[in-house]
Amino acid sequence: MEHHSAQLIACHDCDLLQREIPLKKGCAASCRRCGAVLYRNATDSIDRTLAYTLAAAVLFVIANLFPIFAIEVQEAGSEINLFGAVQSLWDKQMHSVSLLVFLTTILIPALELITMTYLLLPLKFRHIPAGSYILLGMLKIVKPWGMIEVLMLGVLVSLVKLTSSFKVIPGIALWSFGALTLLLAAAAATFSARDIWERMDSRADKEVSA
Amino acid sequence: MTEMTSAAEQGLCSCHVCNLVSRLEQGSGQANCPRCGASLHYRKPGSVARCWALLISAYILYIPANLLTMMETGSLLKYRKDTIISGVVELWRTGSWGIAVVVFIASVTIPLLKLISLTLLLVSVQRRSLWRPRQRTRLYRLVELVGRWSMLDIYVVALLAALVQLGNMATVKAGPAALAFGAVVVLTMFASMQFDPRLIWDPIQKEST
Q1: SS3 string of chain A?
Q2: Domain count, chain B
Q3: Among A33, A77, A150, beta carbon nearest to B148
Q4: Chain A contact present for B154, CB below 8 A
């Protein structure tokens, strides 16, 4: 197979053609001309990403079930969870904004977590899950639209704004979102699509020769 | 193979999904990646035109996003309508300096930075400029990296409007600027995804060969 023997790599930012070199663990190769990171040798990429993803999935469920925070002033008070915020925007005829919040903080992160688990779990046991090529492509497209970490900052800003006029009671989801942000960052740092492609290539080659 | 050669010059093309470098057959029309089946292109098709279209729409919506009301706050004692800027000023005035700076960066600096940077990148690419390609590539990477953070204000408004519903005591409402501003963020994100940074390097490649 011609395309495997060459081991050429083209920089995604400047298209410079370069030869891949083996890397030490934890190192990254960057483009000679523009400095873009071409690929990295992430330690146990698949195992670690899977671990972070599963932990993140648990926290994601918790973060969506429990209230983020509650406010109290004199007799009155109210509390909110993420889906409640989406619903309330929808009820107030702000459909597009509601949809935007729903997509970027609930639907896309959920899809991402499910897809990653679906891909990584079988790969860990050296199976290639069905539809993995399409799913990896899809993952690349939706990735920029999952914005949990921005939401987390938004939650903190709202918290500060609220404390000036209300008594604010932090909820379970507040802490869960905090931890979720860290776990998602860790998963993104250890995830290496290149490792997945390599593992799938080696499996596919074996299946052909067998 | 010369010292610095681009994949496109060698008739090679790297897949945008799996990064595999493969030969693109001339005149065969639609080509697909031999590994993952994604369609192959030397450069993102229609990159400059699409990026301009999205960017101009973003510029237009940027005006209502800043002029209209982002958030209405009402209570027994006071009632106020805030635009993005006046919201930041109010935060600063009431002593929340740290938060004021964060919101200012996310809702004022970043959208402006994105609009101006993408314009600069598009103009320089169309003029086939040879000016500082490395810095321009770095600028593009920065735009991609920070773009999402301008969504901050949308989330703040969404959370506050949903939470603060205490009748006469206190209510917060999201204003029409939230829609316009959300659209600016989404449009500029799409615009920066459409832009192909390899176009920055193509004229330099021509020059050196």
Answers
A1: CHHHHHCEEECCCCCEEEECCCCCCCCEEECCCCCCEEEECCCCHHHHHHHHHHHHHHHHHHHHHCCCEEEEECCEEEEECHHHHHHHHHHCCCHHHHHHHHHHHHHHHHHHHHHHHHHHHHHHCCCCCCCHHHHHHHHHHHHHHCCHHHHHHHHHHHHHHHHCCCEEEECHHHHHHHHHHHHHHHHHHHCCHHHHHHHHHHHHHHHHHC
A2: 2
A3: A150
A4: yes
Give the number of domains in chain A: 2
Same domain assignment for residues B190 and B125: yes
Question: Residue B58 is part of which domain span?
Answer: 46-208
Confirm or reject contact between B180 and chain A (CB < 8 A). Answer: no
On whether any CB of chain B is under 8 Å from the CB of A194, the answer is yes
- B-proximal residues of A, 101-130, CB under 8 Å: 101, 104-105
- Give chain A positions within 8 Å (CB) of B189: 144-145
Q: Can you give the pTM of this predicted structure?
A: 0.91
* pLDDT tens column, B130-184: 999 999 999 999 999 999 999 999 999 999 999 998 877 889 999 999 999 999 9
Q: Are residues B57 and B132 in the same domain?
A: yes
Please indicate, yes or no, whether residues A34 and A21 belong to a single structural domain of this protein. yes
- Residue pLDDT, tens place only, B5-34: 899 988 899 999 888 998 887 766 678 888
Q: Cβ contact (<8 Å) for B155 and A151?
A: yes
Q: Are residues A171 and A72 in the same domain?
A: yes
Task: Identify whether residues A8 and A94 lie together within a single domain.
Answer: no
**The domain containing residue A181 runs over which residues?**
43-209
